[in-house]
Amino acid sequence: TITGTCSLSGSTAPAFNGLTVTGTLTPAVGYRVNGNYIVENSATVNAGSGTVTFGGTTAITNNGTMNLNAVTISTGFSMTAPSTTMGIAGNFTSTGTFINGGGTILFNGTSNLTAAEVYNNITVTGTVTSTGNFSQTVAGDLINNGTFDIGTGNLTWSGSGTLSGSGNTTIFDLNVTGTSCTYTATGILTLRDDILGAGSFN
User: Fold this and answer.
1) Radius of gyration of the chain (CA)
2) Neighbours of 95 (CB within 10 A)
3) What is the tens place of the pLDDT at every residue in 95-142?
4) Between the CA of residue 165 and those of 15, 111, 142, what are the distances in Å?
5) Which residues, at least 6 apart from 100, have a Cβ–Cβ distance to it below 8 Å?
6) 14-40, pLDDT tens digit by residue?
7) Hey, what long-range contacts does 85-90 have (CB within 8 A, 24 or more apart)?
8) Cα→Cα distances 113→94, 117, 131, 193, Å
């Protein structure tokens, strides 16, 4: 448990079987979490630097403010995001299993996506790209006030939500497999191919 103001540093990345933060954590080095990760009320996790690697079965609970730098989910392991908001300021790399947890992933830095994932809500205030052209799925809302460009990857709406914001969005196909996607964005939406699916786009 981190109860005060802590800056992780050193030449070796520390590993935690489980991690609870009740104070303020600002990492200057990458670290590994193999169990649950809890950010208590009024606690803060700053992005700092380095990569947070999830190497177990991790459920994240965020009742404070949580912003991670780069995130990696290792092969054979899983990370369940919180039902609130979790920030990612760097790359999101996964060869394991990502479970969205019903909350919002806030991309607030420069992030490259290296896997196809299913999100509940996404908010972008930075830049999101996908050099591997991985398709992404959103069940709820995508608020883009930055840049969201997944190349030739598709963007699938699996529920009912809104594409909004002032940023530019670039995708290959927009596939509405859920009920609907409502477009209220003031930025530019670039479709490299088509609008697909049985749901409505309006």
Assistant:
1) 17
2) 12
3) 999 999 999 999 999 999 999 999 999 999 999 999 888 999 999 999
4) 38, 18, 8
5) 80, 81, 117, 118, 119, 120, 139
6) 999 999 999 999 999 999 999 999 999
7) 85/123, 86/60, 86/62, 87/47, 89/47, 89/126, 90/47, 90/51
8) 9, 9, 7, 21
**How many Cβ atoms are within 10 Å of 186's Cβ, its own excluded?**
9
Confirm if 43 and 60 have CB atoms less than 8 A apart. no
Residue range 175-190: average pLDDT? 96
Nearest Cα to 50, choosing from 101, 15, 5, 100?
15
Give buried/exposed letters for 99-134 (b at 16+ CB in 10 A, else e): bbbebbbbbbbebbbbbbbebbbbbbbbbbbbeeeb
